[in-house]
Design goal:
Layout (H helix, E strand, L loop, with lengths): L12 H4 L9 H7 L30 H21 L1 H4 L7 H28 L24 H28 L13 H28 L1 H6 L20 H18 L4 H18 L9 H5 L9 H9 L14 H5 L18 H5 L19 H15 L1
Helix pairs in contact: 3-5, 3-6, 5-10, 6-9, 7-9, 9-15
């Protein structure tokens, strides 16, 4: 990959790095620049190859992480080979093979759809949510704005994310029978569609307050969520590049709580997982247009959002206390955190109805919460509801 043209400029550690990261001299920084992992200038047709869009599960380009991913994906199949598939099946749940297949297929979908969204970003700059000039590399950072030390720390969190997610996903299979559901033939298309909507809005409700908490509660912001916001100009691969506990908590508060409270059957469960991958990668893709398949098909929903809303959220860095919703935009509108962002990008091509009605309203900030109210309270309420449901 290409090296940066300016090799003399120091990386600004004071703005973005965590306490443990120390300033690095220019010569030492130069010696640490990866030669194959990160690109320090925007790829052009002459140097961009298909393989440049594919890397590890979390898209960090690390060989060690890629090997770890393959080991974790292969482990369930190896267990079935050694102990027999039937011996691992949990009554009332889909077969253990089905669970292994979900995560294998999900990994493949992440790779392919990430490649698709990044190809759109580089091939159609006119659809970018931020002007092309915003992506010019003014210092030794990657296209998302992270420096060497930040990328190395994210590489470690990638490993922890994969291990913790593996433990959670397969732990749920054995601890909560039926969490990974079988197909219910009695559910028709309409009922299945309604349950998916309810499940996703509940998922979004939990993730809304978890996300807002990570911006409002100083400890959660400083120690956990700010890592994700090192990316000021996100690309789709930035989706899962978080503090490992951020990903772990989202998996519990999002998918896990929603599936317990509004359970989906087998086909709906599969659809929800794949759709969420599409939606999550798209909102970090840096483009907002018809190429965003998951967002485009839900634009008919009231208060729908497009990727330019979440992109604007990233531009705000620590002041980005708005537009927290993970699916749709209902909760942002209800709780006063909706911001239109760069809705005029693409000549208003991807602007929603609400964007047009709020035209020009780009003020940073959100409706303040009452002094007595903590954004953690709704999460406590959800947790209580989950335990009540499980106790029945």
């Amino acid at each position: 990959m290409c090296r940066p043209t300016d090799t003399s400029q120091k990386t600004n550690q004071k703005t973005y790095s965590v306490d443990s990261v120390k300033a690095t001299s220019p010569n030492a920084l130069k010696s640490k620049v990866p030669t194959k992992v990160y690109s320090w200038e925007e790829p052009k047709d002459s140097n961009l190859k298909v393989k440049d869009h594919f890397s590890s599960l979390l898209f960090g380009g690390s060989v060690a992480n890629t090997l770890l991913e393959f080991v974790l994906l292969a482990a369930p199949y190896l267990a079935m080979f050694c102990f027999g598939s039937a011996s691992l099946d949990v009554p009332g749940s889909m077969p253990f093979l089905g669970v292994a297949n979900i995560f294998l297929v999900s990994a493949i979908v992440r790779r392919v759809y990430n490649a698709y969204m990044e190809a759109v970003f580089f091939s159609f700059p006119q659809y970018r949510t931020q002007p092309v000039k915003e992506h010019k590399l003014k210092r030794r950072t990657d296209l998302m704005g992270r420096d060497i030390e930040q990328l190395e720390l994210l590489d470690w969190h990638d490993k922890m994310t994969m291990i913790s997610q593996f433990a959670l996903n397969f732990g749920l299979y054995f601890v909560l029978p039926g969490f990974y559901p079988v197909t219910d033939e009695s559910i028709g298309f309409v009922n299945r569609f309604v349950k998916i909507l309810l499940n996703h809005y509940l998922l979004s409700f939990g993730m809304y307050w978890a996300h807002r908490s990570c911006h409002v509660v100083p400890y959660l912001w400083e120690k956990i969520h700010s890592i994700h916001h090192w990316a000021k100009h996100p690309l789709s691969r930035n989706t899962y590049e978080d503090h490992w506990f951020d990903n772990f908590a989202n998996a519990i508060i999002g998918h896990t709580f929603a599936q317990i409270l509004v359970p989906l059957d087998g086909p709906a469960f599969w659809f929800s997982r794949i759709f969420r991958i599409f939606e999550s990668l798209e909102k970090h893709s840096g483009v907002s247009c018809g190429f965003n398949l998951a967002h485009s098909v839900q634009q008919w929903l009231p208060f729908a959002q497009m990727p330019h809303h979440h992109d604007w959220h990233h531009e705000g860095f620590k002041g980005s206390n708005y537009t927290f919703s993970s699916l749709g935009g209902l909760w942002d509108c209800l709780f006063g955190t909706r911001k239109v962002g760069r809705c005029s990008s693409n000549n208003w091509y991807s602007a929603t109805r609400e964007d047009k009605s709020m035209k020009g309203e780009k003020a940073v900030g959100s409706t303040p919460l009452p002094d007595w109210f903590s954004p953690l309270y709704p999460l406590v309420g959800l947790t209580v509801a989950v335990f009540v449901k499980l106790s029945q």
